[in-house]
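Convert to structure. Protein one:
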Amino acid sequence: MPDSAKPVLLVDDDTQVLESLAVLLELHGYPVATASDGEKALDLMRSGVHPCLIVLDLMMPNKDGYQFREEQTQDQAIADIPVVVCSAILDVEGATEGLGAEHYLSKPVDISALLALVDKYCPTDARA
């Protein structure tokens, strides 16, 4: 991945979801970074990975999506990165009120909706 290419950061503890979404996005030309929980995602970003978009699950071990967002929004270096919450919670938008996410998607993920959001937040020059 070129230095100028910003990846989409997928954060989910379900390896099947992570792998399938990563392959889908890569097939559409987007560079991808993955993390299995909020703690690993924060570590990635603090070590220099600056994604164009974060696709965030809520229910994860170690550091869940709520804890991740709390830390992300308090860290000036990564606070401005847009977030799309993607969760199996029935009322995703209601359950995440106050998180400040740009969008909310329910699982199973509507692929066309996800691709439209990634395209919106990740300009063409961010693609590999």
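Protein two, convert as well:
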Amino acid sequence: MGIKVLYSTRKQTMSATEYVILVDENNQEIGQAEKMAAHEQCLLHRAFSVFIYRDKPQRELLIQQRADDKYHAGGLWTNTCCSHPRPGEDVIAAGERRLQEELGISAKLKSLGWFQYTAHFTNGLAENEIDYVLVGKIDADQNIIANPQEVQAFRWVTIDILRAELASSPEKFTPWFARALEVALKTFN
């Protein structure tokens, strides 16, 4: 259960200015906004949370600790990866892209649906998201290479241990994590 930190030397491929898909409360696309503006103005936008699991010898989830210098929630533990689809990009394709960019993982994902949440951070930024929960499985011995711009650490954890950690220290996790986890766990029961 130790924490692993393997870093990639590859550069992340993202445009200088990123845009998110703005949506209404029914998840209907209504436009786009620059990513930081959406977080500064608490605009409702589309996002996703990816959960990768393996069976070795029991089911484990891969979680990550966000890099300390992320624009919000730095240093907190969360799902395998999370981000936003780009305008015109399918949510599953976006999740598969971000898995590769953040952790060097190739995996087929499936969507379990979405939920809406809002969270405010001490630096004045906010999340107001329609968050798709995506899950995928990898082989127990697949190599994982973290991008240090995104991931401070990662580890495999059983569901029982993860639930105990969430109950005893919820402040160590991102605000969306517990809710997304409950959606993801429906696929394992």
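The chain has four helices and nine strands. The longest strand covers residues 126-137.
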